[in-house]
Amino acid sequence: MPWGVDAPESCQLCRGADSNLYRCGAKAANDLDTFIAWRPVNCMPVAEDHYGRTLATCSVGGADLGEWLVRNGLALD
Questions:
Q1: Residue 58: which of 47, 48, 68, 44 has the closest Cα?
Q2: What pTM, to 2 d.p., does this model score?
Q3: pLDDT tens-digit readout, 28-61
Q4: Would you say 66 and 58 are in contact if contact means Cβ atoms under 8 Å apart?
Q5: How far is CA 15 from the centre of its chain?
Q6: Side-chain half-sphere CA neighbours of 66 within 13 A
Q7: Taking the chain, what is the end-to-end CA distance rounded to the nearest angstrom?
Q8: Which of 13, 42, 50, 58 has the smallest count of CB within 10 Å of its CB?
């Protein structure tokens, strides 16, 4: 992907450092939900991907959510 971050799907499994599978998609979704904590989320559309989906930069409380996901090991840049 030339722009943005790639986060796991909500049902996706990943292998941890111990080689055991864990629900990385659910962890990413739950951790993001906890971080947002019912605060308003603002999104600015930036582009469309080759599937026609809108790509956007989203933030909450001044924090870029994509950057937060990557910094916390929940998505890839």
A1: 44
A2: 0.85
A3: 999 999 999 999 999 999 999 899 999 999 999 9
A4: yes
A5: 18
A6: 13
A7: 9
A8: 50
